């Protein structure tokens, strides 16, 4: 009889080390990763070094400005982050006896109440077997920690470890009161440079972005910094 081929186990690193690697990659900082994991920065550094020794490859390049993924690190992040999410979701389902017909959604309050809620009834009519749980907050959530299946976020698509689908794109337009516009008529985008522009540090898109996208020439990038913005 032919001999059976022995089942060779694939190399699997410590999941704690992989989790530390993903946190550092997501935050771009060992200190922030340590805070998110509720451990010391020294412990995170040790876990990253241990993972790099296990792989025999450098996952991060280090400098005075912080850490950045190497090409190998970026490729490894793409592969392991999805696998770790699957493990976390499967483990969470077993612990809490969660069935596949339960959908947990998180969004910002304004989007959840004004846009999503009016559409849930139609969704439930189409998928009556699904139970839906909607939570709304402005907090930054983590899927495995917060027991969430879908997180609806507002922002640029800069989450390499997540599967991202765009629901709707925004149009960013400048607005003015009628009284101000009467005194300062606008005939072209470049005319905005002679206006008093309100700057906000909290918005996702600022004047620097908007003017660059519209190829406005002659504007100074430092003009709209928080300390020099004209209001």
Automatic annotation (TrEMBL):
<feature type="domain" description="HTH lysR-type">
    <location>
        <begin position="13"/>
        <end position="70"/>
    </location>
</feature>
<dbReference type="InterPro" id="IPR005119">
    <property type="entry name" value="LysR_subst-bd"/>
</dbReference>
<keyword id="KW-0804">Transcription</keyword>
<dbReference type="Pfam" id="PF03466">
    <property type="entry name" value="LysR_substrate"/>
</dbReference>
<keyword id="KW-0678">Repressor</keyword>
<dbReference type="InterPro" id="IPR058163">
    <property type="entry name" value="LysR-type_TF_proteobact-type"/>
</dbReference>
<keyword id="KW-0238">DNA-binding</keyword>
<dbReference type="GO" id="GO:0003700">
    <property type="term" value="F:DNA-binding transcription factor activity"/>
</dbReference>
<dbReference type="GO" id="GO:0043565">
    <property type="term" value="F:sequence-specific DNA binding"/>
</dbReference>
<dbReference type="InterPro" id="IPR000847">
    <property type="entry name" value="LysR_HTH_N"/>
</dbReference>
<protein>
    <submittedName>
        <fullName>Transcriptional regulator, LysR family</fullName>
    </submittedName>
</protein>
<keyword id="KW-0805">Transcription regulation</keyword>
<dbReference type="GO" id="GO:0006351">
    <property type="term" value="P:DNA-templated transcription"/>
</dbReference>
<dbReference type="InterPro" id="IPR036388">
    <property type="entry name" value="WH-like_DNA-bd_sf"/>
</dbReference>
<dbReference type="Pfam" id="PF00126">
    <property type="entry name" value="HTH_1"/>
</dbReference>
<dbReference type="InterPro" id="IPR036390">
    <property type="entry name" value="WH_DNA-bd_sf"/>
</dbReference>
<comment type="similarity">
    <text>Belongs to the LysR transcriptional regulatory family.</text>
</comment>
């Amino acid at each position: 009889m032919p001999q059976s081929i022995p089942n060779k186990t694939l190399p699997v690193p410590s999941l704690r080390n992989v989790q530390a690697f993903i946190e550092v990659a997501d935050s771009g900082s060992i200190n922030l990763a340590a805070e998110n994991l509720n451990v010391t920065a020294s412990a995170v550094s040790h876990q990253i070094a241990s993972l790099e020794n296990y792989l025999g490859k450098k996952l991060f390049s280090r400098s005075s400005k912080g850490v950045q993924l190497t090409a190998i690190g970026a490729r490894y992040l793409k592969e392991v982050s999805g696998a770790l999410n699957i493990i976390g979701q499967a483990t969470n389902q077993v612990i809490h006896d969660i069935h596949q017909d339960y959908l947990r959604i998180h969004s910002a309050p304004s989007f959840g109440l004004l846009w999503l809620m009016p559409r849930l009834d139609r969704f439930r009519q189409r998928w009556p077997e699904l139970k839906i749980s909607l939570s709304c907050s402005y907090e930054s959530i983590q899927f495995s920690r917060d027991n969430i299946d879908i997180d609806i976020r507002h922002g640029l698509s800069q989450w390499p470890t997540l599967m991202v689908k765009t629901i709707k794109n925004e149009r960013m337009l400048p607005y003015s009161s009628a009284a101000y516009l009467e005194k300062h008529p606008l005939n072209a985008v470049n005319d905005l440079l002679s206006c008093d522009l309100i700057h906000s540090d909290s918005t996702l898109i600022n004047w620097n972005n908007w003017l660059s996208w519209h190829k406005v020439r002659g504007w100074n990038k430092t003009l709209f910094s928080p300390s020099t913005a004209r209001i």
